[in-house]
């Protein structure tokens, strides 16, 4: 098994996802993963979980069905200087934080605005991953974004759902540009299923296909070991 962890999964509390936390973790264990992160949508996204859900996440065991469970969140970037919709205290008590651009939390900006938004979020000491930085509706300057990921020790995500041909992010060309930049500068990435139902947990099929197509080195994918991921989890 090449990829032993999935850092991006939603449960029913995200408002537009369909499995419980237990179903997600059980599926991850059944798939042979060693670690799964539960990263439900923050309150700023319509239907997202209430703040109390995140402040109470410590009741979830960090080991279930024999695998490690990271209690996390997917926060929304809400301004072009990179502000997010969750306070530092709440984030400091979680294991992993993904920051993402989502409509309607931030209007689709121009390339400079979107790039500033993403880099601003990277400067937040609690942000570990930028979720789906390939969304064609929010164009980015990948030269700047990849360099900032390196400088702020933040992972850029290759999101399996973005690469679904039925999806709305139309990310593949952006991913190719981003991944080539990562290869050039030796900057690691993380694969995330962005599962919204348990059946998709640990599913990286579209991502692996793309990585193979461009000969992306496996050493630069942190999903190959828990230790590799943990170098990016500051807390
Ligand atoms: Zn997202
Ligand atoms: Zn997500």
Sequence-ordered SSE layout with sheet pairings:
Elements (H helix, E strand, L loop, with lengths): L4 E5 L11 H10 L4 E7 L9 H5 L7 E2 L2 E10 L11 H5 L3 E5 L10 H12 L6 E2 L11 H11 L2 E5 L12 H14 L3 E4 L12 H9 L12 H5 L5
Parallel strand pairs: 1-2, 2-4, 4-5, 5-6, 6-7, 7-8
Antiparallel strand pairs: 3-4
Helix pairs in contact: 4-5, 5-6
Bound molecules: zinc ion (ZN) (2 copies).
Nutshell version of this structure?
The chain is an alpha/beta fold. About 30% of the residues lie in helices and about 15% in strands.
Overall description:
The protein has 235 residues and is α/β, with parallel strands linked by helices. It has one domain: Metal-dependent hydrolases (TIM Barrel, Alpha-Beta Barrel), CATH 3.20.20.140. The chain is built from eight helices and eight strands. The protein has helices at 21-30, 51-55, 88-92, 111-122, 142-152, 172-185, 205-213, 226-230, and strands at residues 5-9, 35-41, 63-64, 67-76, 96-100, 129-130, 155-159, 189-192. Strands 1, 2, 3, 4, 5, 6, 7 and 8 form an eight-stranded mixed sheet that branches. Helix 1 links the parallel strand 1 and strand 2 (35-41). The longest helix has 14 residues, at 172-185. It binds zinc ion (ZN) (2 copies). The site of one zinc ion has 5 residues, from loops. One zinc ion binds at residues 8, 10, 74, 131, 194.
């Amino acid at each position: 098994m090449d990829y032993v962890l999935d850092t991006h999964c939603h449960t029913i509390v995200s408002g537009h996802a369909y499995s419980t936390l237990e179903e997600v973790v059980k599926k991850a264990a059944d798939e042979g993963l060693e670690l799964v992160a539960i990263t439900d949508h923050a309150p700023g996204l319509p239907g997202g979980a209430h703040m109390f859900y995140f402040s109470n996440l410590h009741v979830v065991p960090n080991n279930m069905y024999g695998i490690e469970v990271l209690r996390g969140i997917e926060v929304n970037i809400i301004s072009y200087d990179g502000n997010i919709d969750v306070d530092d205290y709440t984030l400091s008590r979680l294991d992993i934080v993904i920051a993402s651009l989502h409509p309607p939390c931030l209007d689709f900006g121009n390339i400079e605005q979107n790039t500033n938004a993403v880099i601003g979020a990277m400067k937040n000491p609690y942000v570990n991953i930028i979720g789906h930085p390939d969304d064609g509706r929010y164009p980015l300057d990948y030269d700047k974004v990849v360099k900032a990921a390196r400088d702020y020790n933040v992972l850029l995500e290759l999101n399996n759902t973005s690469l679904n041909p039925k999806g709305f992010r139309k990310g593949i060309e952006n991913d190719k540009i981003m991944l080539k930049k990562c290869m050039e500068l030796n900057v690691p990435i993380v694969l995330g299923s962005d599962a919204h139902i348990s059946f998709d947990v640990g599913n990286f099929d579209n991502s692996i296909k793309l990585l193979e197509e461009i000969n992306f080195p496996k050493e630069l994918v942190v999903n190959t070991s828990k230790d590799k991921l943990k170098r990016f989890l500051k807390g």
